Amino acid sequence: MTEPFHHHNESAFGVEIPDLGAGTSLLDQQQETRLGEMVLRQIGKEMPLYQDPWTQDELGKIFSRIYSASAADKASTIAAPLGLVIIDDNSINAFAVPGGLFAINMGLVLSVKNIDELAGVMGHEVAHVSQRHYSRSKEAFKNQTLITLGSMLASILLASQSSDAAGAVALGAQAAMIDRQLSYSRNQEREADRIGMQLMYAAGYNPVAMADFFETMNRKTGTISFMPDFWLTHPLSTERMSEARLRAAQYPKHKTSLNLTDENNLHVMQYRMAVLSDQVTENRLVIAAERDPAAIPALALFYARAGKYEQARGLAKQFAQQQPEAVIAAITQTEIELMANQPQQALEIILPQNRIMPENRALAIYTARAYSALGKGQAALELLQPLVNKNSRDSVAWQTMEAAASRLPESPLKTLQVLRFRAETQFWQGDVDNAIRSLMRASKLAQNNYSMQAKLENRLSEMQEARKFRG
Fold this sequence. Notes:
It is a single chain. By secondary structure, the chain is an all-alpha fold. The protein is built from 23 helices and three strands. The chain has helices at 10-13, 29-46, 53-73, 106-111, 115-130, 133-140, 149-160, 164-202, 208-219, 229-232, 238-249, 260-276, 282-291, 296-305, 309-322, 327-339, 343-356, 361-373, 377-390, 395-405, 412-428, 432-445, 450-468, and strands at residues 83-87, 94-97, 101-105. A hairpin with a 3-residue loop joins β2 and β3 (101-105).
């Protein structure tokens, strides 16, 4: 029997109520941001993350287009997003959290046929946040026990251990309140479908893809979500699918479709994901690469991971000649040289690309990794500092900074820097107690450096506040 499809958990936070008007006590945005950050740390602690910088950036581009469309439409109610995380799980799932945190499962990225389908899922999730569904539902159920974020995360984590029993236990505990909220959350889903389609269209994507993806999902059998049964109690009804199809037909066609680079990058990303998560055999990749150049960098990476560096280099070079503009071409060649313990070659490949596109995050991270492998920690840190200035929640950048600091010449400053960056890595991985310990040790080492000590003390008090926050 086909499982009813419900692909995310925002409805667990939220239920729709009629428009409350401006005078109601919605969660303020600062609270929502703190809530989103709390969940980001929880996800970092409890869930396996897929932390490939290039994939993060590519998905981030699609997401930013949709989020910008939402901000243009809702300038007063939608703040800058906290970020997009990719969960290393094969179930087809995505979810949104108040404060603008979005999570998408690897399984969903692998299941889409084109970039527009991915944009449809993102549009749906962004709509949940732009419509403030969580805070509206808090208002609606203020006299009843709403499913708390904590219990919801616990349910996700229980069910992610692939035990149907765990999902059922979580469901049983919440069944009574779910029953009251169900009709609201169904309405919320439909609102997210409608607004999400507007957003994806405004961002330049084809709205028909949302309806296509719904139908693909409806045909999938078996458990397609690690969410507990609660999220499967909202069937993807034929009514909801036909509404999406009818609505999509009303949009005029875009005069120009998005460029082929985006579509090609999606396929490169899917093959790369399959290699990095050990889901594809050499034989399948060889066959794929013969008919689809997007599989070539993945096959090169596959060979490098198996220690077959010459085969890997040949394929990566072939792809770089075919697509010299592609960032992933330089990154693949760099990864191969780093795996082959040839950091100088790695730097010679990546540094010119980094100089051409200094704003490109993935190139900066790989260039920094090459510098670190050569023992040039300071050069690496200079490339990475702007990344964390721009996004202080970038745990991949913090991890890369910690590794770079460990390659600095021996000195008290080196130990201080390692501890400081380690504290950020620990914090965003949800290990708040150890993050605080690391910062305290760094602060002791900074006793003669007043500006550094003030900076560390300030961050320490932020972390201590975050530890107290319970949503």
